[in-house]
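Appendix B. Extra example for self-study. Work through it before the problem class; the solution is given directly after the inputs so you can check yourself.
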Amino acid sequence: MAQDSGTRTLISHAQLRRGRGKVIYWTLLAVVVVVFTLVFLGPLYWMVTGALKSGQEIAQTPPTLFPKDPQPQNYVDAWHNLDLAKLLFNTFYYAAGAVAFQLVFDTAAAYSLSKLRPVFGNAILGLMLTTLMIPAMVLIVPQYVTVIDLPILHLNLLDSPFAIWLPLVANAFNIFLLKRFFDSIPEDLMAAALMDGATPLRTLWSIILPMSRPILGVVSIFAVTAVWKDFLWPKLVMPHPETRTVSVGIYAFSGGTPMNVVVAASVIAAIPTVIVFLIFQRNIMSGLTTGSLKG
Amino acid sequence: MTLTTLPGATRKPGRPPAPPGPLPTGLGRKVRDNLTGHAFLIGAVLCFVVFSWYPMIRGVVMSFQRTRRGETTWVGWDNYARIIDDPSFWTAWKNTFYFTVLALVLGYAVPFFVAILLNEFRHAKGYLRILVYLPVMLPPASALFLFKYYAYDPSEAGLFNAILKALHLPTSQWMQSPEMTMPAMVIASTWMNMGSAVLIYLAALQNIPGELYEAAELDGAGIWRRIRHVTIPQTRLILALLAMLQIVATMQLFIEPLILANGAGAQDSATSVAYLIYQHGFFQNDLNGAAALGVIMLVVLAGFSAVYVRLTAKQD
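Solution. Structure tokens for the complete assembly:
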């Protein structure tokens, strides 16, 4: 017990290290590792290899564990028939823009709310946070009506990337995350910068932002995955085949395309987010837990 | 309501420290500082105004109007009456509640126990955590096509039926069978989404002081009693918060019926309220009816929130 640096949990470490406890611990661990691998990785294996099977093989009973006669042609067909290059490019473009817009506007807003604190700042923050309680589905119709005919300007944003970028800026969760991070930066630094005659913009750029890289990373990753995973909103505001996102494009083609090709396209569509996750999993997990709640 | 547990949200910031040195003082400076502050806020605030706050009001206004051939008139409660008269209305609510309840049973208890289990392991922690969260990162459309074509294939060539057959259990028609439609959608949805809940619970579990378990053990409490009397009370706030968030999320059930069940599903067994909003708004050219349905959904969820606030306030 004494040498344990980790905190004590439900079952004491000592108990897990002695005879029966040790056996149970290792058996349970092995079972959980196997079961979790089957449950969470198994379907992905099935998806990747299933899309390599021929139409006949996929309809065979019992199903085969390995493709007998791998058909990479399914992936090639998916790439060409669905024009996945175009769809992936669109999605990347929307994701990159979403990151840029959210970083600029949400960071500026959080900085103002945390450090500059203008009058009504708290009221504005409160109004922003109330939007967290409004389910997206409730707003979908009035938002759509607003986007096809912007108030005052009377612009129609259909098929324009701004229809994806701008609504994403209105993200209270990001602003809250950033504000909380900025709150933890000591006021002394601000005061010192002020004394040196730095403008608020200069302070943000040279002092606050360099210290905030971890949280900026988290916000960027969330922005990318939000765009990549979103379905209904891009389906509504990007109706033209040329402007579709990858999920919407696959859905649009799923009706008249062989199912193995649809699944092959789904695999390709999932690769970018899986890679982002494997590279940034630490940031994602810390952002998810520190951001939302503590006690 | 979710905000009361978030530290920092309600904290009143102190006044910024008075800048040292001979700086311009008085009203002019105050006005200038405030203008600067608002200049930094304006971009985000404009986006909130146009895409969030204004649509909230507009949704309510639209639900009392009717637009025909470009002419908008006030029609009182007509849209609500029309929406409620639609026979799909009650089916959709029944299905949505059924999904919410099933998802609470499966998608709420399972992640909590998975988190408790993972928290006990000293090995393979990172690997298990990555596994659980991996499906969360897939685009939902991709994951759902996998379920639709490979897992829920009603013949014995489907993954789930092949497993059931190998275990000598009866196979199922999955999405073709009205009884299995909802459980099948809940399984797919839980698989896709449980990762975030597991990670949030894990973080909460790590904040429980070890002495509490030690004391309970000294008092002779077994594992189950330690879970009941230490783990659950210590994570109560997060358990309650995630229950609320999950109800809000599952009430918006949309993409699962759209992809797995082609919308309505066998004998309307998959129609959800969100799907009905989509149908009315974008296929039946009835944006006003869809707005009314949205307002009804908001009222129902507000009702849930009120109950939630009541229950959590009582416990404190």
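Self-check: Confidence is low (pLDDT under 50) at residues 1-5 of chain A. If your reasoning did not lead you there, revisit section 3.
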